[in-house]
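Memo to structure team: turn this sequence into structure tokens by end of day. - J.P.
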Amino acid sequence: MKYLLLSLAVLVPVAALSIGLAPRGDARGDAKRRASFISRDHWLAVAIAGVALMVLTAIFDSLMIHADLFYYADELISGVRIDLAPIEDFAYPIAGVLLLPALWRMLIKPKPDSGESRAMDVSGSPAMGLSRSPAVDASDLPAVDFSGLPASDSGGSRMAIFAKLRALFWASRPVSWINTAYPFAAAVFLTQREIDALLVVGTLYYLIPYNLALYGINDVFDYQSDLRNPRKGSIEGALLPPEMHRLTLGAALVTNVPFLIVFVYLADPLALMLLAVSTFGLLAYSVPKLRFKERPLLDSIISSTHFVSPAVVGFALAGAQLTGAQVLILCAFFLWGMAAHAFGAVQDVMPDREAGLGSIATALGAKHTVRIALTLWTTAGVLMLFTPFPGPLGALIAVPYLINCAPYARIADEDAYLTNRAWRRFIGLNYFCGFLVTMLLIFAVRYG
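Reply from structure team:
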């Protein structure tokens, strides 16, 4: 099958789904006019995003093809190109820009129209504002089902199932999926220089199932403390009601085990040991008795392991013989992960102390933890200076993180919640810096 026909086979149902879920008006006068404006804004946003993605696709596809990262068989493409990029490659951004708004509309509930002071979060539990909150007991919360509506108003079993899937989706922290999938994919591709079953299956695992286990298990065992945390109930963390706990643990088990079985089958003894360390770190961070997340300093170490171990496992499964430069890069990445966790813990100093939880930030205090994060990011940048070109350019990637973190080097514990502003910027920085890392990898593959 030619790529153009294959692309159309994907685009047609995606377009139908996007149109079917797009905002539309109702039969009432003013409401219909308002909805028509919403619909117009929706498609305008889709169009703007589509044009931007098309331009970026043309630029970066051409760069990657020029770098000989991949090629297309002439008999399978139409021959129409924009610069070096075949027209078929533009199906991916078009599908993405159509599908993602549709999925967003499916997975996000509209805010209640009433003047309630307590907004409902994506899990159906009340979301708290960005301020320190007193202890809240689960019995104080209104009875809600997983669609975010009062239990008596639930729209049937189909809606309940969908709402549970939506809760699992947000429990997996979709905004962070790339942080674990990318390291694995980069490690395997740099080793094998081709896209094969290992790369596809492993990237899929570290994209969704791994994150569902990592964050879902954490949300289950942190429920009581999360009730006191003003950040929960947003993209920064789900607030799973108790009714979802068993389902979340079961979903984590069912989605992870098949992939792990495949990895065990493919692994040599070294890869098997590294996979065991990665899986143990995933569990040990949150499960009772171990709870490494409550052990100061160890919490930052094990958190960094969550992001670095996919790369290490990827290298091992692909049979890489690590060079000194690659070891330095992994060390720099590990320090980056520790800094990220430490800085993220600062904003939770007060809620964690109120809940009786330990962390590097509760042990050392906000300002000292911020300074440790600054030191770790700086050291990560310095390590990159000792790698072959273009590695030293990677040292510059630490600069945006330092700029974002530095203003809080003297912050008091009682004001630590203010660092949430920088933490939200940090989430965006990861995407921007990931783009820069990708450019460096392309250069290294082409000219290294």
